Amino acid sequence: MNTNQVSYKYQKIRDIQIFYREAGNPLNETIILLHGFPTSSHMYRRVLDELSDNYHLIAPDYPGFGESDFPSADEFEYSFDTIAKLIDELLESLKITSYTLMIQDYGAPIGYRIATAHPERVRALIVQNGNAYEEGLSAGFDATKKLWQDRTPENEQPIYAMFSLEGIKWQYTHGAKNPEHINPDNWNLDYLKISRPGNHQAQLNLIYDYRNNVKLYPTWQKYLRDNQPPLLVTWGKNDPFFPEAGAKAYLNDVKQVDYHIYDTGHFALEEEGHNIIANIRDFMQKLKNN
Fold first, then answer.
1. In a domain, 2, yes or no
2. Which sequence ranges form a coiled-coil region, renumbered to this chain (predicted)?
3. Which of 46, 104, 135, 142 is the most exposed place for a label (fewest CB within 10 A)?
């Protein structure tokens, strides 16, 4: 069996089929790749392909995203607490109890819940536009903050723009040095999934629940200060949601940070994947040597 080849698997967790991509030899160091909104484990396809020679990689899709089950928002609680517990249980079921977490966007609140529940299991953190600081929330969150204060149809309406094909494409191309280098399959696949009947409601529930992530920022910052996990920051500085201030804030809490800022947008892997993968390889090698 070629363990470098990516496998596409499902695991049933609490009656929900969780899809995940796996590559690399399980005897090697494990990296858990946690995706953002509105995408899926698809965003890590290049990382899986290129790092599987030396590392064991797992990239799950959350419920309602990618190839995982999409339970109705009437029957399933779309919250970061619930999703983090499901992904934690997925790792338990796969008997993975030591790992590095790579977190981007929604992957940050999910990853930090797992890390604070099991600090002894987390070998290191790789943060790519994954925010844990209020200074890392840009004016791009203004409409969302109104929704947090009062969830009315009027305040929900501006959020729907994020679910349109143009809105999703914008999240990939805004701030990119050369948008022509970004594969349109990204936004077309995401749009297909987010346009399923009922998915807008699930996504609105998560966006509304994001306010609870902000309340947990002090807890996650304390986790960083107390545990001092080895930390790699790779950040697209033109992110319309999470500006570079969110990256710099990590330097206040973690003493040793491998810090890289790139002139690109929210999905930095799309344009700077070659460099970020090289950063990860160097970082993981240093971790192994220490």
1. no
2. none
3. 142
Domain count within the chain:
1
- Does any domain span residue 1? no
Q: Which residues contact 172 (CB under 8 A, 6 or more apart)?
A: 179, 182, 186, 187, 265, 266, 267, 270
Select from 193, 170, 192 the least CA-distant residue to 266.
170
CA–CA distance, 61 with 35 (Å, rounded to integer): 7
**Length of the chain (residues):** 290
Residue 250 falls inside a structural domain? yes
- The residue range of the domain holding 28 is 7-289
CATH of the domain at 247: 3.40.50.1820
Q: Which of 200, 260, 266, 274 is catalytic?
A: 266
| Mean confidence (pLDDT) of the chain | 97
Residue 3 has pLDDT above 90, yes or no: no
Write the pLDDT tens digit of every residue in 229-276: 999 999 999 999 999 999 999 999 999 999 999 999 999 999 999 999
Whether the link from the prior residue into 38 is cis, omega within 30° of 0, is yes
